[in-house]
Every structure is written in structure tokens, then in C-alpha cells.
Write a structure and sequence with these properties.
Elements (H helix, E strand, L loop, with lengths): L2 H7 L11 E9 L3 E8 L5 E8 L8 H13 L8 E6 L3 E7 L6
Antiparallel strand pairs: 1-2, 2-3, 3-5, 4-5
Amino acid sequence: MDYFQLQVAINFEEFEEEKDWRRGECVGRGGHSLCYVIKSLHGGRMMVVKQMRHTDPGAASIEEQKKEFELIKKLNHPNIIEVFGCNWNDSCFNIFQEWMPGWK
């Protein structure tokens, strides 16, 4: 399934944990974010979600998080992980990205 087909198949703005995807192991940690391997419950697609909590002291504002998403979504290079979409909920901002097995 290529990127365009994935975009048509999944509405990331309404992509909810437990309803649409299941969280797997943590594969990365940053100053204000955690990255988890996830599995879509609609077709089994493996991805990564980068979660940035709104409640973390010093966490970026929602506007800053939106800017980061828009910037990385514009990147297009074979050596850069593809970004599929994002959403916000009460506790965090989620960025859904391509999963590269073994990239820990």
C-alpha cells in the first residue's frame, strides 16, 4: 500500500487508540515525546506514533506542534521517514509516521 492509498484508507484526524490502533513497544524517547510502534486495526498496517503530551512542563504549544508537523510533512526524500497524518486529543498531540523495522 503506498502513501496515497494509506491516506485514503485512514482518516488520521479521527484515528483513535483502541478503536483504530493498538500501541506496541516504545521505540524512542525525546525531551517531550515518546514514540511507539502501533498496528492499525483496519488492515494491520504497522506505523509509529510520536506522542507529545500537552501536560509536560516545557512542552511545545499546540501551535508549535502543528508547525513541526507541517514542516516534516513537506520533507520528501528516500532517506527520511514518511509522515502520514496527525491528530490531537485531550492529553497529547500524535504524529503518525512510517515504521522502519530495526531502526531503534
